[in-house]
Write a structure and sequence with these properties.
- By secondary structure, the chain is of the alpha/beta class.
- The protein has a single domain (2-129, 168-269), classed as Spore Coat Polysaccharide Biosynthesis Protein SpsA, Chain A (Alpha-Beta Complex).
- It has helices at 2-8, 29-44, 70-74, 136-150, 188-192, 198-201, 212-222, 265-273; strands at residues 17-22, 48-52, 97-101, 105-107, 124-128, 168-176, 227-229, 236-237, 249-251.
- β1 (17-22), α2 and β2 (48-52) form a beta-alpha-beta unit.
- The termini are far apart.
- The model has no long low-confidence stretch (mean pLDDT 94).
């Protein structure tokens, strides 16, 4: 009942909001710039901000069963950093809404309040990649990716294999507290280590290169959560989105494939801000 009151009378009951980021491993000028923009944005919209800079969950694949390369986990001390951001799930007892934003996301000054996009009717919100204004090259890439990652999972009953799957890019996600009931009281580590996710963690078959994105898309749809498809302006994939200048959040994904591995931050800012 109290939770409902907070939604109906936000002027009397302050909604507690958290933006969570993970920035472990090697330092980067791009990641420094992006995380600083997110921290300032959190202050702007009156949300708490946490940037995790040390591994906590340390999820490890089964070294006797994994199809992942040794480099993918041994260079980080034997764990997979791709599952660290799920540690944000441990904060639902303290917050009404949580946004998880990758360290390679830059937020423009004066962007609207992201949390306003998810009303109490929804558990989860994210941007569907195929609904973004994408280059033809990237459209073909996500079609191939769709077959590799989701072809055998039967996540969407109405998905036609002639088009990309309606998966969400999990580099930017938004959750209401109602999302936490699907965790069934488990800690983030217990959640990731569910037997149904072992094939993803171990990188079996086509999931050799998978991240938490495949696992989460599979799970939120299997659970039939109330999911809101957010506008593509909330997740602008740099070099793939044809309208990047209209995006609130710029996602510099695949950093190592950017010019100078994304370290020429000034040049990147010129590109996204050019008139």
């Amino acid at each position: 009942m109290y939770e409902s009151f907070k939604w109906q009378w936000p002027g009397y009951f302050k909604m507690k909001k958290l933006i969570y980021q993970v920035y472990v491993g090697k330092r980067s000028r791009l990641y420094d710039h992006c995380t600083e923009s997110v921290k300032k944005y959190a202050e702007w919209i009156d949300a708490d901000y946490i940037c995790q800079k040390q591994p906590i969950l340390k999820i490890k694949p089964d070294v006797f069963n994994t199809n992942r390369s040794k480099e993918s986990y041994e260079k980080y001390g034997g764990y997979l950093p791709i599952y660290e951001k799920e540690n944000a799930f441990s904060y639902f007892k303290e917050y009404d809404q949580i946004a998880i934003i990758d360290a390679d996301v830059y937020i423009r000054n004066n962007s609207p309040n992201f949390f306003d996009e998810l009303t109490e009717d929804y558990d989860f919100g994210g941007v569907v990649e195929k609904e973004m204004p994408l280059t033809q090259i990237y459209q073909q890439k996500i079609l191939n990716y769709s077959h590799m990652q989701y072809g055998s999972l039967k996540v969407w009953e109405d998905w036609s294999p002639q088009v990309p799957a309606p998966f969400m890019n999990m580099g930017i996600m938004l959750m209401n507290q109602s999302f936490s009931k699907y965790l069934e009281g488990q800690t983030p580590r217990q959640f990731i280590e569910r037997s149904e996710f072992k094939m993803f963690v171990d990188g079996l078959g086509a999931w050799k290169w998978s991240t938490d994105q495949t696992l989460l898309n599979y799970w939120i749809n299997k659970e039939r959560m109330s999911i809101k498809k957010l506008h593509w302006k909330w997740n602008g994939l740099f070099s793939a989105n044809t309208k990047i200048k209209e995006c609130h959040f710029i996602h510099f994904f695949l950093k190592d494939k950017l010019p100078e591995s994304g370290e020429n931050v000034e040049q990147l800012m010129e590109v996204i801000n050019a008139s």
